[in-house]
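[agent] plan:
  1. take the single chain provided in the ticket
  2. run structure prediction with default settings
  3. attach structure tokens to the ticket
  4. add a short note for the reviewer (M.T.)
[agent] executing step 1
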Amino acid sequence: MDFIFELILELILEGSIEVSKNTKIYKPIRYFFLLLIIFFFIGVIGLIFFTGILIINDNLIAGIFIIGIGIFMLIASIIKFRKIYFKKRIKS
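[agent] step 2 finished; step 3 output follows
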């Protein structure tokens, strides 16, 4: 069951990334998929922060570690997003 869920989620996410980068597709469709990707990553990173905040009451070190992972994922996502979607402006 996990394999099927992972496969479907990967297909949807990778497909959305490819569609949002393709300039041959209409802008409203690209922007919709771009927002879908952004909301997905905001949700996942937000859940990591929320888990870290909940755990910090019981175990301080584990909570700080999970919040650190959330910060790392947030920074990595921003860097990857800028690399994918703003490299066209740099080349022009």
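[agent] step 4 note for reviewer: The longest helix spans residues 27-56.
[agent] ticket updated
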